[in-house]
Amino acid sequence: MGETSPLISVCIANYNGEKLLSDCIDSVLDQDVLARVEIIVHDDASSDASLDLLQTRYPQARVIASPSNVGFCASNNRMVDAAIGDYVLLLNNDAALAPCALSALLAEQRRIAGPCILSLPQYDWDSGALVDRGCLLDPFYNPVPNLDPARQDVGYVIGACLWVERRLWLELDGFPEWMESIGEDLFLCGLARLREVPVRCIDGSRYRHRQGASFGGNRVDGGLRSTYRRRALSERNKTLALLICTPGWPAWPLLILHLSLLCAEGALISLLRRDARLWREVYRPVPHTVLGSLDRWSALRRRVQSATCTTPREWWSAFKWLPRKLSLIWRHGVPEVR
User: Fold this and answer.
1) Which one, 165, 318, 320, 338, has least CB within 10 Å?
2) Separation of alpha carbons 321 and 103, rounded Å
């Protein structure tokens, strides 16, 4: 192959993934790609034997062992800072690539010949069913799985398998660490789309994903289930992404409508579930976080919007107008939070 340094850096954020890592890393080692690949693993202060597994079975992987738990966003930022490759693939420890995945991603990157964010169709680990071909968004920034094989350009691709040119990642400042986890991929792709950078889910390969194995939730198994922490981060971070990324004046009436509906949703579901903790930990903090620090978020919005070159038509082309939560409740009932 002849390269003196890696062209592709595969970055795997790990926390207590001892039982997941082998499938993930083996899938990277089995890649059929004519390029040198490095593997970087950030271990986020795991309490299991992840580090021992990495040391004994995967000495070729570069391991960043954090002495404290810093979260998904910081873990990925650290790995990309340490990466050598021109291109980075963020890969969840609960995911595994098909053998031709890196080859397909690299070919599309070279075809585009410019900055882009890419992913592959996601398939459920257990059932083998197609989960999405990237995601569209509803007006309140809830993800709507794209299942259309004819559509490649999407609103965002999830961080479980996200390909990005390292230079673009650095220009966009990576994942915002104030998000901690959940929604950081949506935010990064939003920043890219505002700059007219393609965000695309391509054909030619796939990956399998144990949805929710690394952080709970994210699956529909006989009903909607999640955790308090996941829901709290999700509602907060989607709201802030709406405020910061939505171009033009529609951001403000949309934010007001969203906060009003979110409070109504929280009050109703908390009453139906007889769960005051749900209101206290998930819904009530969102307006306080947004409105209590509005100067901070407005300043960030102005900085982000100053780089905008997309048109409203291009921006909203990745949105569906039926609120996603309504369709989910209609199909699966009121969500259960544990």
Assistant:
1) 338
2) 35
CA 227 to chain centre: 17
- Strand partners for 91: 12, 161
Amino acid at 236: R
CATH class of the region 8-209: alpha beta
User: Cβ distance 97 to 27 under 8 Å?
Assistant: yes
Q: Residue 1 has which token pair?
A: 């192959």
Per-residue model confidence (pLDDT) at position 218 = 47
Residues of the chain with pLDDT under 70: 1-3, 212-225, 329-330, 332, 334-335
pTM for this one?
Answer: 0.93
Which pLDDT score is estimated for 2? 39
pLDDT at 61: 98
Q: Residue 43: beta bridge partners?
A: 14, 65
**CA atoms of 327 and 260, how far apart (whole Å):** 19
CA distance 34 to 31: 9
Residue 13's closest CA among 59, 37, 39, 44?
A: 44
Domain ranges for the chain:
8-209, 219-337
The most distant pair of C-alpha atoms in the chain lies apart, rounded to whole Å, by 64
To which H or E segment does residue 220 belong?
strand 219-220
Nearest CA to 281 out of 224, 236, 329 is that of: 236
Q: How far is residue 272 CA from its own chain's centroid?
A: 30
Q: What is the pLDDT of residues 30-65, one digit of tens each?
A: 999 999 999 999 999 999 999 999 999 999 999 999
